[in-house]
């Protein structure tokens, strides 16, 4: 398998969120061991107009990386304890990202961040040439379910209820 290039991530977040299902998230550890995880769940966040997206508040120090071209890591801390792993998508100055919500049997973005030992040092890392984290290609998965995104009640019903969470269907 080969590493996805930044060209893959230049698509919009809805497309990338679906296409990441079934791909392989790779984490290279400090001791040089490598662990590969199947991506099983994602969520799409589509720019300043999406009230659930951090970029809806505009360009800030926290969201600056979202305004770069696709392929960079966007991590942020919630509840003072969970680092959330996102991949920036789209083109420059069009802030979009995909949250990785599930890998293998680990479900929940906080649990994913903990498993991968994410921290602030990953912010802005380019997945195309990172030596710590990247995604490898695998055949596109056509069997998945959609659901509303999680934990975004603040965004209002219109944005909260959009079926922009994608879950790999392993029942086949």
Number of distinct helices? 4
At CATH level 3, the topology is 3-methyladenine DNA Glycosylase, Chain A
Low-confidence stretches: none
Percent of residues in β-strands: 25-35%
> What CATH architecture would you give?
Roll
CATH class, anyone? Answer: Alpha Beta
Tell me, what's the shape? globular
What does it look like?
The chain has 172 residues and is an alpha+beta fold. It has one domain: 3-methyladenine DNA Glycosylase, Chain A. It has four helices and nine strands; from the N terminus they run ααββββββαββαβ. It has helices at 6-9, 13-19, 109-115, 157-160, and strands at 24-28, 34-46, 73-78, 82-89, 96-103, 106-107, 133-136, 144-147, 165-168. The mean pLDDT is 95.
Keywords, please?
alpha+beta, 9-stranded antiparallel beta sheet, 4 helices
Topology:
Layout (H helix, E strand, L loop, with lengths): L5 H4 L3 H7 L4 E5 L5 E13 L26 E6 L3 E8 L6 E8 L2 E2 L1 H7 L17 E4 L7 E4 L9 H4 L4 E4 L4
Antiparallel strand pairs: 1-2, 1-7, 2-5, 2-9, 3-4, 4-5, 5-6, 8-9
Summarize the structure in short.
The protein has 172 residues and is of the alpha+beta class. The protein is 13% helix and 31% strand. The protein has a single domain (6-168), classed as 3-methyladenine DNA Glycosylase, Chain A (Roll).
